[in-house]
Design a protein that fits this description.
Blueprint: E1 4-8, H1 10-13, E2 18-21, E3 26-30, H2 35-50, H3 56-70, H4 72-81, H5 85-95
Parallel strand pairs: 1-3
Antiparallel strand pairs: 2-3
Zinc ion binds near residues 48, 60 and 63.
Length: about 110
């Protein structure tokens, strides 16, 4: 089954830039992001949908490397945009295994 990509508003995904819903085989990307970042986030989330690994840190490393090769500039801008406290907190929580849920995604 082919993965879907949906572009959603900032308020549906904040503080995340993207989200992969494995159950619905859908990659969500924030539409307010710069175009190059959207391209990177899309590849990153699509990679997550195909990845069978369960280890969060390893999943993130793989998805970032995959996106980096597809859109190096998008990766770079994404990193710069992520050097904000609310973004670093998100990474910390994700690595500690605290998952974010986005209940408003399909509204
Ligand atoms: Zn990710």
């Amino acid at each position: 089954m082919k993965s879907k990509v949906k572009y959603v508003s900032k308020k549906k995904l904040y503080p995340a830039f993207g989200y992969s819903d494995i159950k619905n085989n859908t990659a969500y990307v924030r539409k307010d992001l710069p175009k190059i970042v959207k391209k990177f986030v899309k590849e990153h989330e699509l990679y997550h949908l195909k990845d069978k690994s369960k280890v969060v840190l390893w999943r993130e490393i793989k998805a970032n490397v995959y996106g980096l090769f597809k859109h190096p500039l998008g990766f770079l801008v994404c990193v710069i945009m992520s050097l904000a406290p609310y973004r670093l907190k998100l990474y910390f929580n994700r690595i500690m295994g605290r998952d974010y849920l986005f209940p408003k995604l399909e509204e």
